[in-house]
Protein backbone atom coordinates (compact mmCIF):
# COMPACT_ATOMS: atom_id res chain seq x y z
CA UNK A 1 0.00 0.00 0.00
CA UNK A 2 1.28 3.43 -0.88
CA UNK A 3 1.34 5.97 1.88
CA UNK A 4 1.90 9.69 1.84
CA UNK A 5 3.91 11.20 4.68
CA UNK A 6 2.65 14.58 5.85
CA UNK A 7 3.77 17.04 8.47
CA UNK A 8 1.38 19.03 10.58
CA UNK A 9 2.71 22.49 11.24
CA UNK A 10 2.10 24.62 14.26
CA UNK A 11 1.80 28.29 13.55
CA UNK A 12 2.93 30.51 16.36
CA UNK A 13 3.52 34.18 16.71
CA UNK A 14 7.13 34.91 17.38
CA UNK A 15 7.98 37.60 19.88
CA UNK A 16 11.37 38.16 18.31
CA UNK A 17 10.45 39.11 14.79
CA UNK A 18 7.78 41.67 15.47
CA UNK A 19 4.02 41.32 15.56
CA UNK A 20 2.33 39.15 12.99
CA UNK A 21 5.29 37.00 12.08
CA UNK A 22 4.15 33.42 11.93
CA UNK A 23 6.85 30.87 12.48
CA UNK A 24 6.11 27.34 11.51
CA UNK A 25 7.15 24.43 13.64
CA UNK A 26 6.49 20.80 13.09
CA UNK A 27 3.73 19.67 15.38
CA UNK A 28 3.53 16.06 14.27
CA UNK A 29 4.32 13.81 11.34
CA UNK A 30 1.38 11.80 10.05
CA UNK A 31 0.74 9.33 7.29
CA UNK A 32 -2.23 9.10 4.96
CA UNK A 33 -3.23 6.51 2.40
CA UNK A 34 -2.49 7.65 -1.14
CA UNK A 35 -5.59 8.69 -3.05
CA UNK A 36 -6.48 5.99 -5.53
CA UNK A 37 -7.84 8.50 -8.04
CA UNK A 38 -5.10 11.10 -8.01
CA UNK A 39 -1.73 9.41 -8.05
CA UNK A 40 0.59 10.75 -5.39
CA UNK A 41 -2.00 12.81 -3.57
CA UNK A 42 -3.01 11.94 -0.03
CA UNK A 43 -6.51 10.92 0.96
CA UNK A 44 -8.71 13.47 2.77
CA UNK A 45 -7.76 12.12 6.18
CA UNK A 46 -4.66 10.76 7.82
CA UNK A 47 -4.64 7.30 9.37
CA UNK A 48 -5.41 8.92 12.74
CA UNK A 49 -8.37 10.79 11.26
CA UNK A 50 -7.03 14.33 10.87
CA UNK A 51 -7.75 16.35 7.72
CA UNK A 52 -4.77 16.46 5.38
CA UNK A 53 -5.78 19.78 3.85
CA UNK A 54 -3.48 22.01 5.91
CA UNK A 55 -0.62 19.57 6.07
CA UNK A 56 2.59 19.76 4.13
CA UNK A 57 3.73 16.80 2.14
CA UNK A 58 7.06 15.24 3.04
CA UNK A 59 8.95 13.89 0.07
CA UNK A 60 9.66 10.46 1.51
CA UNK A 61 8.70 6.90 0.75
CA UNK A 62 9.73 3.98 2.94
CA UNK A 63 12.33 1.89 1.13
CA UNK A 64 10.68 -1.36 2.17
CA UNK A 65 8.20 -3.00 4.53
CA UNK A 66 10.69 -3.04 7.39
CA UNK A 67 11.84 0.55 6.84
CA UNK A 68 10.50 3.27 9.11
CA UNK A 69 7.44 4.97 7.64
CA UNK A 70 8.78 8.43 8.32
CA UNK A 71 12.20 10.00 7.71
CA UNK A 72 14.58 9.12 10.58
CA UNK A 73 15.27 12.80 11.27
CA UNK A 74 11.55 13.33 11.94
CA UNK A 75 11.06 10.42 14.32
CA UNK A 76 10.72 12.85 17.24
CA UNK A 77 7.42 13.98 15.80
CA UNK A 78 6.01 10.59 14.91
CA UNK A 79 2.24 10.47 15.37
CA UNK A 80 1.63 7.49 17.65
CA UNK A 81 -1.88 6.92 16.31
CA UNK A 82 -0.72 6.81 12.71
CA UNK A 83 2.16 4.54 13.70
CA UNK A 84 -0.24 2.14 15.44
CA UNK A 85 -2.47 1.94 12.38
CA UNK A 86 0.49 1.43 10.05
CA UNK A 87 1.81 -1.37 12.23
CA UNK A 88 -1.52 -3.17 12.04
CA UNK A 89 -1.84 -2.98 8.26
ZN1 LIG B 1 -1.51 10.91 12.82
Q: What's the SSE blueprint?
A:
Elements: E1 3-13, E2 22-33, E3 56-58, H1 80-88
Antiparallel strand pairs: 1-2, 1-3
The chain binds zinc ion.
Residues 30, 46-48, 50, 79, 81-82 line the site of zinc ion.
Structure, described:
With about 90 residues, the chain is mainly β. The protein is built from 1 helix and 3 strands. The protein has one helix at about 80-89; strands at about 5-15, 20-35, 55-60. The protein has a 3-stranded antiparallel β-sheet. A hairpin with an 8-residue loop joins strand 1 (about 5-15) and strand 2 (about 20-35). The chain is globular and about 45 Å long.
Sheet with most strands: strand arrangement = 2-1-3
Detail the poorly predicted runs.
none
The total number of structural domains is 1
The proportion of residues forming helix, as a percent range, comes to 10-25%
Tell me the strand percentage band. 25-35%
Shape: globular
> If you average the pLDDT, what whole number results?
86
**Tally of DSSP helical segments:** 1
What is the string of SSEs from the N terminus onward? EEEH
Note the gap between the termini: 9 Å
Let me know the largest β-sheet: 3 strands, antiparallel
Bound small molecules, which ones? zinc ion
